[in-house]
Design brief:
- By secondary structure, this protein is an all-alpha fold.
- It is built from 24 helices and no strands.
- It has helices spanning about 1-5, 10-15, 20-30, 35-45, 50, 60-65, 70-80, 85-90, 90-100, 105-115, 120-125, 130-135, 140-150, 155-160, 165-175, 180-185, 190-195, 200-205, 210-220, 225-230, 235-245, 250-265, 270-280, 290-295.
- The longest helix has 18 residues, at about 250-265.
Length: about 300
């Protein structure tokens, strides 16, 4: 370990080199006692933000997170004002995602609180940092911080190429008590999202978590445009998903009425036939196993 001490003044330089960074990583990982931790860490302190954005140095910096928590806490303090900047940087985001995975509970909450004002912006930008942050939420406090930040912004996120995936992750991974607001926010935009190139896939995921009352409101919102959306190349998937998830008598009564009014028209196109197929497969009102035309006549 005397080699580590003697080479420590050159660690930062080595870290930025295509080959030298491998040597630096090995030296950092061999540190075992307080003198080595302190000596090596001193060489990097004050330079973490710059090094995180460097192609090769980000790897030795990541290795430093293995040091006792008092050192990783100091890394946290240094990068905290620059979390947004690093999360948007092609190299910096590698460091931040790694820090999120390795953080202890206190460090994770600090990262979460300091990143939360930028959750939507970073989600829209497509950085993997938010996906990693959401995947590592395990406690009620984590879920609450994130869901509160997303409130009022679900519609905007559904229409974005990248952030729609975070909406889908939110409704699939978070406990229901933290996601019921998502359904309420998209109901007024059901028709638009159903036919949107990004929104339609997010909408289908959101329908999966809707409660009985919310599904009934969705049907009411959909009814005036049922034929048009059912015949749309994207919209038919959301209509089919909603029909799949509706099973109460009141919901089925609404769907029966819609199919009586528009069924013959839907049979004329392949997208409408998809919706009819979903309807015909419902085990209700004697329609189970019936052909689509027989189902509508009944």
């Amino acid at each position: 370990m005397s080699l580590t001490i003697s080479l420590s003044p050159h660690l930062v330089e080595l870290s930025s080199h295509e080959l030298g960074n491998v040597v630096a990583q090995k030296m950092i990982r061999k540190c075992k006692d307080p003198i080595h931790f302190s000596t090596v860490f001193k060489q990097f302190e004050g330079k973490f933000v710059e090094l995180c954005q460097t192609q090769y140095a980000k790897f030795p910096v990541d290795s430093l997170w293995r040091f006792p928590s008092k050192y990783s806490d100091r890394i946290m303090d240094e990068i905290k004002p620059h979390l947004k900047e690093l999360s948007m940087h092609v190299n910096g985001q590698v460091c931040i995602t790694s820090f999120i995975r390795k953080a202890n509970e206190d460090q994770f909450v600090k990262l979460l609180k300091n990143l939360s004002p930028y959750l939507v912006e970073l989600s829209v930008a497509g950085t993997p940092v938010i996906e990693t942050l959401m995947s590592n939420c395990k406690e009620p406090t984590h879920y609450e911080i994130m869901s509160n930040e997303f409130k009022g912004k679900i519609y905007q996120m559904c229409k974005s190429k990248y952030s729609k995936s975070r909406v889908k992750q939110l409704v699939s991974d978070f406990p229901r008590k933290y996601t019921s607001f998502v359904v309420d926010e998209i109901i007024p935009h059901f028709k638009e999202l159903a036919t949107d190139e990004n929104g339609h896939s997010a909408l289908q995921s959101i329908i999966q978590i809707a409660n009985e009352e919310q599904k009934m409101v969705m049907l009411e919102e959909l009814s005036p445009s049922f034929s048009a959306i059912s015949s749309h190349p994207l919209g038919n998937f959301s209509v089919g998903t909603l029909i799949d998830k509706c099973n109460s008598a009141s919901q089925l009564q609404v769907i029966d009425g819609l199919m009586r009014n528009y069924g013959k028209q839907l049979e004329k196109g392949k997208h409408g036939k998809f919706v009819i197929g979903k309807y015909s497969s419902k085990p209700h009102r004697g329609f189970s196993g019936a052909s689509s035309s027989e189902s509508m006549q009944k």
